[in-house]
Design the sequence.
């Protein structure tokens, strides 16, 4: 099953909760990110976990970039991280 890697690309988080460069891996449960940001990105995370390809600019990709609903103070990149074959 794929995993989704979430990376904080920019942060002016009002509460100081997210820092630029923070990384979270999502397999099947919500990572420790703020509720408002998670609610905003969850549909895309769920789609990627289930094999979707999303619109990404002028192409389709297994990733997304979104901004925090609090006036875009946090920018997050989500991308599929495929399983490594052993």
Sequence:
């Amino acid at each position: 099953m794929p995993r989704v890697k979430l990376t904080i690309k920019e942060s002016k988080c009002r509460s100081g909760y997210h820092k630029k460069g923070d990384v979270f891996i999502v397999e099947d449960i919500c990572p420790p990110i703020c509720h408002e940001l998670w609610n905003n990105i969850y549909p895309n995370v769920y789609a990627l976990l289930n094999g979707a390809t999303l619109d990404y600019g002028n192409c389709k990709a297994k990733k997304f970039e979104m901004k925090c609903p609090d006036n875009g103070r946090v920018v997050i990149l989500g991308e599929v991280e495929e399983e490594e074959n052993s």
Summary: The chain has a mean pLDDT of 91. The first helix runs from residue 35 to 49. The chain has one helix and six strands. Residues 30 and 42 are 9 Å apart (CA to CA).
